[in-house]
TrEMBL record:
Pfam families recorded: CUT, Homeodomain
Source organism per UniProt: Pygocentrus nattereri (Red-bellied piranha)
Ranges of biased composition (kind: Polar residues): 300-313
PANTHER family per the UniProt record, alphabetical: CCAAT DISPLACEMENT PROTEIN-RELATED (PTHR14043), HOMEOBOX PROTEIN CUT-LIKE 1 (PTHR14043:SF4)
Keywords, alphabetical: Coiled coil, DNA-binding, Homeobox, Nucleus, Repeat, Transcription, Transcription regulation
UniProt domain Homeobox: residue ranges: 177-237
Subcellular compartments: Nucleus
Segments of skewed composition (Acidic residues): 268-279
Name of the protein this chain belongs to: One cut domain family member
Length: 387
DNA sequence: TAACAGTCAATATT
DNA sequence: AATATTGACTGTTA
């Protein structure tokens, strides 16, 4: 009952915004590559991607990314090329997307776009060929450039070469103002401190933020950003855990261990992992939570019977519940007919089942949940309680 | 207005 | 070289 069947008139906005992002700084390279393009891909049905996204049935983002990774490695295609060419995203973004895709129902329309593109790409094996061709062409162009600039003119900048020792990381002190942002890098201890603060209060008040910034000697905005990013990334970790759990549960234990999504947690992926303290019963000398002043922070004493929100609806992705192609209009390719393949146990080195830190993350998130509950509590309509 | 969702892009790792 | 991580930025959303 969630999705309305398609066939609707779709009120589309013919906004041709593509690339709202970066205000195109200074481009200038690649004379022969009209790449930035997201266009070109008008589905077989002649629909724009946005339209397709709008009518797309639920897709299994986990399965799609898994398949994409498989295809890429099998054909020696890098994610950079794939991302830039097929998805119109940068390498880092693609890496992130492939490693920890959010479940379909948690994605916004915009967020679903890359997945629809992936699905589309996978739907036609010829696409792989095309990408391989591109790879070759790129290499060729690269070689060519090297040659011409090596034996011939040596135009490009490089005032000081050879004379430099080591590597000349030529930051250049050009006349231009140093608008080069230094790129803040938080020290491990700073991260620790922030994580600790997060555990106390996932949503620090401006005042608290101010304090933290001062104490750590960071810009206020850095602290704010850190919290936003941390919350958001932790949330994502939880999503993938849900997926994994669902998959594991669905596949039952007897059969195939199969899916072992990459290496889930381990040391720590993005965050929630530093807080080790777990465990073993022996209580460590210090307290588990060491926090100077627990003074204020009345702490939301009232914590209604919290339940693990992990019990989310959604269906089991694992169990074959695939969506069916919406319309029979099979013009061209089976649009959304899943190319899904059997759980071919691809390599995947099933790492040790060290998911103990799953607990930790969840625990770390309790505060977050409490916060949301409190927020929800102020709402009359329970149906608004979204998690 | 704060929080979020998506990304970018500079660094870090592998 | 290819990938992974992550602070910051832009556009939405409630």
């Amino acid at each position: 009952m969630s999705v309305k069947s398609l066939g609707e008139p779709l009120g589309l906005q013919a906004s041709g915004h593509e690339q709202p992002q970066s205000s195109e700084p200074s481009e200038g390279s690649q004379p022969s590559t009209p790449l930035p393009l997201p266009l070109s891909t008008l589905g077989p049905t002649g629909l724009s991607i946005q339209e397709m996204v709008a009518m797309s049935p639920e897709l299994d983002t986990y399965t799609i990314t898994k398949k994409v990774k498989e295809v890429l490695t099998d054909n020696n295609l890098g994610q950079r090329l794939f991302g830039e060419t097929i998805l119109g995203l940068t390498q880092g973004s693609v890496s992130d997307l492939l490693a920890r895709p959010k479940p379909w129902h948690k994605l916004s329309l915009k967020g679903r776009e890359p997945f629809v593109r992936m699905q589309l790409w996978l739907s036609d094996p010829r696409n792989v060929e095309k990408l391989m061709d591109m790879k070759r062409m790129e290499k060729k162009a690269y070689m060519k450039r090297r040659h011409s600039s090596m034996s011939d003119t040596q135009p490009v900048e490089s005032g000081l070469v050879g004379t430099d020792f080591g590597q000349s990381s030529s930051p250049q002190h050009h006349p231009q103002q140093q608008l080069k942002k230094p790129r803040v890098v938080l020290a491990p201890e700073e991260k620790e401190a922030l994580k600790r603060a997060y555990q106390q209060k996932p949503y620090p008040s401006p005042k608290t933020i101010e304090e933290l910034a001062t104490q750590l000697n960071l810009k206020t905005s850095t602290v704010i950003n850190w919290f936003h990013n941390y919350r958001s990334r932790i949330r994502r970790e939880l999503f993938i855990e849900e997926i994994q759990a669902a998959g594991a549960a669905a596949s039952g234990e007897g059969g195939s261990p199969s899916v072992r999504p990459g290496k889930a947690s381990e040391g720590d992926s993005c965050d929630g992992t530093e807080m080790d303290a777990v465990a073993d019963d022996s209580k460590p000398p210090g307290s588990t939570l060491e926090e100077p002043s627990a003074a204020k922070a009345p702490t939301p004493s009232h914590s209604p019977t919290l339940r693990d929100p992990t019990t989310s609806a959604a269906e089991g992705p694992g169990t074959s519940g695939h969506q069916v192609p919406p319309q029979g209009s099979s013009s061209g390719l089976g649009l959304f007919g899943f190319p899904e393949t059997a759980p071919s146990a691809s390599s995947s080195t099933s790492r040790n089942p060290k998911d103990s830190n799953l607990r930790k993350k969840k625990a770390a998130n309790l505060n977050n949940i409490i916060h949301r509950l409190e927020k929800a509590a102020s709402k009359e309509d329970p149906s608004e309680w979204e998690f």
